[in-house]
């Protein structure tokens, strides 16, 4: 049996990264415990506030955010912490070598209906050691990430982790309260017959995306010559996890529903960590045409269209978008 701690000792050269991932995993175990208590822990429902994105905060969003903030701002390796739920980054220990970003509870509208949710995290280097970290220090392209992952609170609780050299998965052993290695060197097939997209946005998409989904829906009778299946968890963590387990393609594409939003998902703590995991498993992640990890962020809460998963499918979507330009 290899625990997460063993795995980090064997695969990571950085005590700082191990320290931060150790804290994230301990908080994830606390969040898991609260989720399993459900209505009994009085953590469901609205907290009565809106986050920086103007979304209603669920009680557990707020609790998960506070738990992660408390742990990471006290972590000596962390110079700063940024969260989906906070307007600005929070400076931690100026001597720290790392910056941590997270979405404490992705897919939180799933909480009250007993469906999967997750915690997503990304770890960046801190290049201004000795000085108080500010938002500007976080604005590094996804290629700079030193580690990234998520914890999916599903039928079991699973962590997917990359240290930039492949993807490993750990399952939470609720007897010993430890994450235990269940799979390494995860690899996504280049082709797939499964896609994930919120098709209710169809009329707001670009023609290239409409054409792509039209072709999938046409199945054997259309240009792709094979039938496709569709799945939508409504929590990106769940959809990405399915792709790491059995392949597929996921998209939250550009849409014109809200002219102020280039896409729905957040670059720095949703798209970037997921893109690193997907690439490390042999898949691809783009905004339809450009590699997500190459995008230079201009703000912490920036949104981006996302297309990720099976390499050939992501390439085909890119081809359709480029042909339409
Ligand atoms: O906020 C992000 C998110 O909850 C993702 O986890 C998920 O993929 C998406 O939004 C769901 O969006 P929609 O409610 O439009 O289906």
Automatic annotation (TrEMBL):
It catalyses: beta-D-fructose 1,6-bisphosphate + H2O = beta-D-fructose 6-phosphate + phosphate. InterPro entries: FBPase_C_dom, FBPase_class-1, FBPase_N, FBPtase. Keywords: Carbohydrate metabolism, Cytoplasm, Hydrolase, Magnesium, Metal-binding. It is an enzyme of class 3 (hydrolase). Its EC number is 3.1.3.11. Pathway: Carbohydrate biosynthesis. Pfam families: FBPase, FBPase_C. Its cofactor is Mg(2+). It comes from the Bacteria. Residues 15-183 form the Fructose-1-6-bisphosphatase class I N-terminal domain. Binds 2 magnesium ions per subunit. Coiled coil: none annotated. It is found in: Cytoplasm. One of its GO terms (biological process) is gluconeogenesis. Residues 188-321 form the Fructose-1-6-bisphosphatase class 1 C-terminal domain. Substrate binds at residues 106-109, 198, 264. Homotetramer. Belongs to the FBPase class 1 family. This is Fructose-1,6-bisphosphatase class 1. It comes from Faucicola atlantae. The gene is fbp.
């Amino acid at each position: 049996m290899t625990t997460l701690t063993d795995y980090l000792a064997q695969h990571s050269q950085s005590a700082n990264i191990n320290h931060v991932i150790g804290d994230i995993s301990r908080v994830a175990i606390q969040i898991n415990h609260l989720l399993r208590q459900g209505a009994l822990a009085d953590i469901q429902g609205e907290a009565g506030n809106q986050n920086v994105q103007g979304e209603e905060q669920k009680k557990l969003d707020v609790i998960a955010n506070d738990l992660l903030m408390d742990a990471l701002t006290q972590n000596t390796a962390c110079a700063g912490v940024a969260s989906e739920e906070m307007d600005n980054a929070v400076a931690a220990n100026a001597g720290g070598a790392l910056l941590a970003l997270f979405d404490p509870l992705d897919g939180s509208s799933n909480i009250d209906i007993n469906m999967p949710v997750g915690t997503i995290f990304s770890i960046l280097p801190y290049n201004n050691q000795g000085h108080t970290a500010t938002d500007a220090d976080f604005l590094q392209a996804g290629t700079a990430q030193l580690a990234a992952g998520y914890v999916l609170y599903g039928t079991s609780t699973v962590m997917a982790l990359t240290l930039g050299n492949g993807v490993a998965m750990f399952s939470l052993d609720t007897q010993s309260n430890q994450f235990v290695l269940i799979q390494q060197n995860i690899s996504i097939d280049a082709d797939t017959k499964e896609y994930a997209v919120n098709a209710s946005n169809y009329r707001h998409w670009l023609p290239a995306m409409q054409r792509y989904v039209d072709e999938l829906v046409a199945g054997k009778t259309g240009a792709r010559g094979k039938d496709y299946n569709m799945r939508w968890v409504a929590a990106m963590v769940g959809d990405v996890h399915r792709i790491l387990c059995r392949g597929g393609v996921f998209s939250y594409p550009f849409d014109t529903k809200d002219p102020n939003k280039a896409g729905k998902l957040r670059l720095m703590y949703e798209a970037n960590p997921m893109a690193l995991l997907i690439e490390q498993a042999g898949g691809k992640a783009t905004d339809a045409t450009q590699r997500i990890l190459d995008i230079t962020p201009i703000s912490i809460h920036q949104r981006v269209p996302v297309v990720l998963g099976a390499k050939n499918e992501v390439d085909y979507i890119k081809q359709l978008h480029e042909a339409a330009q």
